[in-house]
Amino acid sequence: MAPIAWKPEFSVGDPAVAHEHRELVELVNVAAGAILDRRPDADVDRCLGDLYRAISAHFAHEERQMTRARYDQLAPHKTDHERLLDSLRDIMDRAETTDAATGLRLTAVLEAWFVDHFRTHDARLHRRLGPHDD
Ligand SMILES: [Fe+2]
Ligand SMILES: [Fe+2]
Description:
Helices cover about 75% and strands about 0% of the residues. The protein is mainly alpha-helical. The chain has a single domain, classed as Hemerythrin-like (Four Helix Bundle (Hemerythrin (Met), subunit A)). Helix 1 packs antiparallel against helix 2 (about 40-70), helix 1 packs antiparallel against helix 4 and helix 3 runs antiparallel to helix 4 (about 100-130).
């Protein structure tokens, strides 16, 4: 089961970014699957930890690119990243009550954010940066 289906617009027109975004979508699905399958708490915690680390690393990468490029929308873009990390920490704090509602909330919150952020902030950023491989 893949709660979040890949959408072509997630690639934001750049293969390297598409690869990272695809990994994030997969990690959300793995974590949500662990919750919905009622896997042991340690497994759920590990999946959520992997997801949080991968998302943080991806955001740090983009924020370095924005700083280097003196990107004009760095502040609002970074604020939107922080909004997602806050939501994710909130979900993780309540993850000891791993039930179907938590799994569904995880995918609903992350999918809504991916659809909006990738289509707006990331699309604009990567159009502005052009092709890159760092
Ligand atoms: Fe991104
Ligand atoms: Fe971003």
